[in-house]
Amino acid sequence: MDLCGACAVLGLLVVPCLSARILFLHPLYSGSHEVQLRGLAEHLATARGHHITYVKFANTVDIPNNHPNISLITLTVDNRDGRHPYISRELQGRFDMPLDVLWEHGHLPHKIPPDAFRTMIALCDTLLGDSELLTRLKRQNIRLAVIDLFTNECGLAFAYQLGIPLVGYWALPLNGGEADYAAGMALTSFSPISPSFMSGLTDDMNFYQRMKNALYKLLGTIVMRLQMFITNNLIQKYFPGTPHPTLLLSNLSGVLANVDHSLDYPRPLPPNVIPVGCMQCRPARRLPEIMELFVRGSGEAGVILFSLGATFDPSWVPKETLKRFLKTFSHLEQRVIVKYHGEIDMEVPENVMIVSWLPQQDILGHPQTRVFFSHCGKQSAMEAVYHEVPIVAMPVFGDQIDVAGMLRAKGMGVVVDKQALEEEIIHALNEVIYNYSYTKNVRKWRGVMLDQPQTARERAVWFLEHDAPRGTHTTNPQGIIVAGEAPESDEEREEFLHTLEILESNHMSKSCSVNSNTSYAGDEKHLSCNNGEVESNCAVSANDTVLKLSSKSQKLPGKTHSSPLAKKLIPAECGKMFVKRSSLKVHLATHTKNKPFICEVCGQGFSQKVSRDIHLVRHTGEFNVS
């Protein structure tokens, strides 16, 4: 082939690709959350050519970064005096997950220790007070932010200052926490047949279970209200005028939800909630040689994989617990691979291999793996379904209780308590291994998981590249505040003051030929186009959301003239200007008796915007939400 022909062929192979800078903001450490988000970030950097800035807090289990397109920024907390719990006592303090508390009380929502809120405050103060980081991120021309929402209201408010579309990531089931407020799910996330967070219930409940479900929901709501109160105070301390966390959550451009129909109950979802469960799942690869020989040597009996994730730590798990497990495994005909990092000062049965690290998906995908004895974390459960392996679930804390109940309800496994006796564990393992119905159900739900036009990762990438950059207007059912509209900068504020000077001249045509748009430039052009050529001066009216320009006798032709720079700055009654929305609200109370939403026709105040809009119908005959 000549040179011209080769160039033509190469030209046909070129695929157009526009790279962008994307921010990933990760809160306190949770292994499964970071594995998911880091995997998505690496895929965007490798396969799609994007540049990723990954911001996270330092922790005792760091995942190294070796990708040239990923810039990892690790934050630390000054904890030399030891006043912050669950953070190492040093200048560059690292978050240290309280695994002992989780092991003992992680299944009881009312046992959340007060120290958890103190740790959250320390992390919030560190992130929100890092002005250098904010300046650095603003200079990078970041186009989109992906924020892990779990206990991360401060991270959401921090990213809001960048003025870019915000996408949430939710790693847990859609049954509580920030998910109740995110992207329009507040109206659909809870119903009498949807199990509440950490209840361990299914969608098949009797009357007493429904009462328990309602109580768990009430308890979860109280915890979230307290958390929102704490974080909002911190947010207003550093960024006054930033919307309340509930508004930031409800106006996300979208949410990547770690759910899949195979491991969830039927529920309605808004179009901007994208199911991306099992995003990390992949076909099995060949095992390391030593492990492969051990698995093959199991013969027809097969292998059991035992892993409790990061929660099974030798520093705080009682030695009696490990002894009990090893003694139980010694009575099985199957071989057992145990994930446990730490010194073993007890006899290990011949049919047991203990390793500090293992390729979990490669073992699950091996044809001789019979059952997965698991803590039932969301990622592990999905990987088991993906590889057609039934589960014996031993939940330890948090959403693991709900995931275990869901697996049992769908016939894909059984549940045992972490304090179960040897006989109970052996009975559960034999039940799942020799009762073919569990394997049959896992295969059925695997088909549901895979029989889709796109993989979970493809859905996530498509949404981030195509839908999320458009903001909330195309998908969000609430649209209270446009996501990504940050508070005004100094330059924008100067422009707005210039607009006020034009307004003070009071020269505007009642029938101007210029059709202004809703941008600042359009307003200024409209206000100055017919200076000095009018008989009727322009009257300025305003509420706490939009500045309107109207004639004394009638509305100006065309659509409402508004400027985003005027939002939340001018009260209706006196025209006094405030930079901070909080100051405006205090001032409005002097006119409206704590009713900040003003009728522009008669001046009556209302406590809610929708009440004001309904009232306006009496004057105009139209329901017009400005």
From TrEMBL:
Record keyword Transferase present: yes
Organism: Timema cristinae (Walking stick)
UniProt xrefs under Pfam families: UDPGT, zf-C2H2
UniProt KW keywords: Glycosyltransferase, Metal-binding, Signal, Transferase, Zinc, Zinc-finger
One GO cellular component, as annotated: nucleus
SUPFAM superfamilies according to UniProt: beta-beta-alpha zinc fingers, UDP-Glycosyltransferase/glycogen phosphorylase
Family (UniProt): Belongs to the UDP-glycosyltransferase family.
Domain C2H2-type: 573-596, 597-624
UniProt signal peptide: 1-19
Domain of life of the source: Eukaryota
Protein name: C2H2-type domain-containing protein
Gene Ontology molecular function: UDP-glycosyltransferase activity; zinc ion binding
Classification lineage: Eukaryota, Metazoa, Ecdysozoa, Arthropoda, Hexapoda
CDD domains: GT1_Gtf-like
